[in-house]
Amino acid sequence: xxxxxxxxxxxxxxxxxxxxxxxxxxxxxxxxxxxxxxxxxxxxxxxxxxxxxxxxxxxxxxxxxxxxxxxxxxxxxxxxxxxxxxxxxxxxxxxxxxxxxxxxxxxxxxxxxxxxxxxxxxxxxxxxxxxxxxxxxxxxxxxxxxxxxxxxxxxxxxxxxxxxxxxxxxxxxxxxxxxxxxxxxxxxxxxxxxxxxxxxxxxxxxxxxxxxxxxxxxxxxxxxxxxxxxxxxxxxxxxxxxxxxxxxxxxxxxxxxxxxxxxxxxxxxxxxxxxxxxxxxxxxxxxxxxxxxxxxxxxxxxxxxxxxxxxxxxxxxxxxxxxxxxxxxxxxxxxxxxxxxxxxxxxxxxxxxxxxxxxxxxxxxxxxxxxxx
Amino acid sequence: xxxxxxxxxxxxxxxxxxxxxxxxxxxxxxxxxxxxxxxxxxxxxxxxxxxxxxxxxxxxxxxxxxxxxxxxxxxxxxxxxxxxxxxxxxxxxxxxxxxxxxxxxxxxxxxxxxxxxxxxxxxxxxxxxxxxxxxxxxxxxxxxxxxxxxxxxxxxxxxxxxxxxxxxxxxxxxxxxxxxxxxxxxxxxxxxxxxxxxxxxxxxxxxxxxxxxxxxxxxxxxxxxxxxxxxxxxxxxxxxxxxxxxxxxxxxxxxxxxxxxxxxxxxxxxxxxxxxxxxxxxxxxxxxxxxxxxxxxxxxxxxxxxxxxxxxxxxxxxxxxxxxxxxxxxxxxxxxxxxxxxxxxxxxxxxxxxxxxxxxxxxxxxxxxxxxxxx
Lengths: 373, 375
Known about the structure:
Chain A has helices at residues 2-17, 72-82, 112-116, 133-138, 147-160, 169-177, 215-224, 295-323, 330-335, 339-345, 349-355; strands spanning 29-31, 34-39, 45-52, 62-68, 86-88, 94-98, 125-130, 184-191, 194-203, 209-213, 233-237, 253-258, 262-270, 273-288, 357-368.
């Protein structure tokens, strides 16, 4: 019996060992780190890929590929016919979408593989690119690291400074399916030899391009969404303190850290009309001031900033309402308190959103005015 | 006459060493299994995001049924499984009930095992064949089953920290949470919540194993307390997992994710380690493993008591070969295992509700016949 057991055990173990098939050395892997999707001049979908090369002999440290296909998984077959190793998608860092893609309303369908294949890394960043992707992949800046490191770092630091959002593929999935919000993602542009984070691309609910928010507007959107990551420095021009019209140095600039945003939203619903009162309380710390700050002048400056910020935020929201985009997600707030009525309007929320009454109120608390007066 | 005495002594269980803590974890361990992985989606599909309240009701119902089981068991504390049913229902009906239950346990164990291999094939080892994974899984299963209930109890106790750790790691997903997704807490009134209660009750299935465990308990008088704590632990786990899924996923999104509890793991990422989800998922498998191990053991135990054979290694290996052959006869897919699980849940519901009624009727009839008060 004992002998029989040992025999059986060893047979099973031998079967088990074959389960370790599929071992791959890192030199033999083409890790796709950056994936790009674009529509070329012939109106065909192209898939781009950048992957680091683990070899001392090659001069270039990254290899780039592009193929024409409508299936990202199929593109991998083509990549494997060209790359030196087996292509793997588990370490993907960023997915770039060319601006021409956003002119086609069904473009989201190509993303299906990302959400279906469990091997895919859902925390990869989704980035829109202003201009053709071929230019990005052909870029060889001398003073910058290779593309697979360069792009994620760019987004990461921009996010830390709160001048760009960081939308992972997973978050974009949510933005796409949630009915109370419209999608957005950071935008890259090519300036000469460099890549620049341009701001935020807003999409309509049909996933078409709407407009690009500038750096300052992105900061304001971040405040509205109460979504601060690292440090947020806001610089404002206050006309009130302008001294000399002719001089280049007009002495009207103020800047400050926003340490925190406390967002409190009063939601009301009467006769099919939503109204949101967004109350923002922000502790700030001055870093630049156009005037000397005593206790009384501090109050004046504070008032001026409150007024200016409030005006800018309200303008931003009004422009959102005019364009029928809701990146702040007022729809989510709407269904968080009036669910029965939300169910009736969920499919045309943006019309209701356009008519609803949204007011922003800013309250500033000066914590620190610096070490000099 | 002498024969009868011997048979009776065979029915009495003398070795009872399961501690109170082990008993609590065994209840928790048998309930929390593959059902948990898709629970948030099923709840959201049926009753929206307020349906997590139904879990609490499901927990209360399950606790009550558990207490009823313990009360029945207290009348015949030391009899083994078949002995217990013979005591209440007589030889023939008792045997039939045990046979059905044993089949049910084996069916449940088989499904949990096959489903686990499907998850592994889908997430981690895409190229590995089903039978290889099954063989690898069946090795520890063999050891645990041949070790009997006491070894299984120790196993469940030993892997509890892993279960705790995995659940704790879920807290790291909360950095992307939006509380507005789950508000208002009661979205469409109480009706959808009540409608989800049958569904949540099925996630507490496994409570019927108290009947099997009971004679092995060290301190039987504290069993009711154990049932309450065990069920509370399960309820807490379900509510915790469900609420986390509901605040991470938007209400529209969660209906499209098959296994939100696995999918959510991929949110967790640290600077020094990416794809932590694969590691955590492998740990999740240990939590699932205790379901199939316990179910298969309970089924084999029932059969061995029914047909009076000892659980020799050869019999267990024979069962495993049948399991492997079955996966060749019907190649397991997500769709057909889901259908099988549905059948399992319905039959489980009938068993957990039917058995107390049967026992009650059987006890009453026996009272009338024998004039000895047992119920």
